[in-house]
Amino acid sequence: xxxxxxxxxxxxCSCLVLVHHSGTCQPYLRLRPSPSDNLPVxxxxxxxxxxxxxxxxxxxxxxxRKKLGSNFDPNFMAVVLPGVxxxxxxxxxxxxxxxxxxxxxLKKMDLNEAPYGGRIRMGKKxxxxxxxxxxxxxxxxxxxxxxxxxxxxWPRFIKEGHCFSEKxxxxxxxxxxxxxxSVTKTFLRWYCQGWSRQRFCTWIxxxxxxxxxxxxxx
Length: 218
Prior knowledge:
By secondary structure, the chain is of the alpha+beta class. It is built from six helices and six strands, in the order αααβαααβββββ. The strands form two sheets. The chain has a three-stranded antiparallel beta sheet with strand order 1-4-2. Strand 5 and strand 6 form a beta hairpin. Residues 1-32 have low confidence and may be disordered. Residues 39-60 are annotated as: Disordered. Homodimer. InterPro entries: Cystine-knot_cytokine, Noggin.
């Protein structure tokens, strides 16, 4: 039988104590999801096992709100699924475009130079309409939808961002809207270790990346 030395026992006990009180022991923060530069976030694969799920007494909303504290962001998380209006991707894209403002680099673009204008001169009105069309064509909004993370997360629902990618966003075509920035939101994750009567379960804080900006790129 493999012997476990005293330092290993002390480290394990220390981690259990930290998780029980604050959920901040480093090994458990490596559980997915975790902050990542790789976007979009990969789907979380949960293995169905009722013994690994929180029980009714573990789901007291008042206790969980207190544990999550100021990290609870009602703009991006919800305990119950908010009312969702069915809309197509094109509807969402059109709605997002109406909120955008013309970027500075487009305002400063010289349309009288190739490849846009060449020898053709544009008046102010034509120039403004062309820039608005160009901005609408290349604009990459962040589209949000509510996602169910499952019973092992609290709050259970997250407003997840994704980039519109049903068509090219460049002229000539070839580039698509891709995520370039994200923000992290802290959720509670139900985590169990051990087995049978020796199983220890608790809520621990985890950070979930949410796409916050998309850009037209290769």
